[in-house]
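Cross-posting from the chemistry board since nobody answered there.

I work mostly on the small-molecule side, so proteins are not my area. We synthesized 3-phenylpyruvic acid and want a rough idea of how it might sit in this target. Sequence and SMILES are below. Is it possible to get a predicted 3D structure of the two together?
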Amino acid sequence: MPVTADRYGYLGPEASFTEAASRRIPTLMGARLDPFDSVHAAIDAVRSGEIAGCVVPLENSVEGSVNTTLDELIRGEPVVVATEFLLPVTFTLMARPGTDLPSVRRIITHPVAEAQCRTWLGKNLPDASVALGSSTSAAASAVADETVGADGHPYDAAISAPIAAERYGLVPLAEGIGEDEDAVTRFVVITRPGRPPRATGSDKTSLVAYIRDDHPGALLEILEQFSTRGVNLTRIESRPTGNGMGRYCFVVDAEGHVADARVGEALMGLRRVCADVRYLGSYPRADGVRPPVGRGMTNEDFRDASSWLESLRTGRS
Ligand SMILES: O=C(O)C(=O)Cc1ccccc1
């Protein structure tokens, strides 16, 4: 398959939240966007060069990380985050025309949506079962096609993005059924590793740190690399490495860009103390926040310290 520079994938099928996010990401304007069946399939198409990049959900303000995406970043051929994007999400319960709310017994949706609609379901459809699918739009499509579930019966309703009702010929039975009306999902554009975008002063850097020999304070050692250089973390998450029981790595989002001296020094520190460090990219922050840089932590401070050391070593002032 030829590489098409402006061909991007997204977690489909059509009318997923991920498609909605993809169509609003400024750096993808004008790009061709194609649906993929799973996060794995989309990221693998990036790895193989079939597409330039793909959009996948990474984190939700209520439910936390999307583990299928995190695990793709941790394992396999390395890929990086090129862009992040925040999209508010509202959930709609939808069914084939003629289905009424009390008759809904079998629901299908994505795990992130299920977690956020649990309270509403417990109150309004306490006896309904919820099956988990690869995306909210795949769920809507399964309801429209009368796909049968594990019990041999077709699903009655899907929890999906409002636009999925129209796309799959379903009717909304209940709208805004999520726990938090202000829920936001963080989507990322994944590409093959390459030169990161320029530092903007409002950036994040993501990475995975693998502990070297389990020992007391191993996590502290990782955290120290950031704290002594004044680098604030916005997220730290442990995930199994997939290589044996109890083996975990840490997925970190840090404020700043790999081009910032303090972030670069923290990365070098990690490289010295960890078994492995996987760089997952530096990219502009979706929230536009420009955190203040602490005293002694600016690029100039690091430059000055480095030339001072050089003068000691060479005897030249
Ligand atoms: O993109 C979708 O439709 C998904 O299924 C992933 C998802 C699920 C819930 C909130 C945001 C993204």
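Reply from a structural biologist on the board:
Welcome over. Reading the output above for you: The pocket of 3-phenylpyruvic acid is lined by residues 11, 16-18, 57, 60, 89, 110, 112-113, 135-137, 161, 185 (CB under 6 Å). Residues 1-88+184-194 form a domain with the D-Maltodextrin-Binding Protein; domain 2 fold (CATH 3.40.190.10). Happy to explain the token format if needed.
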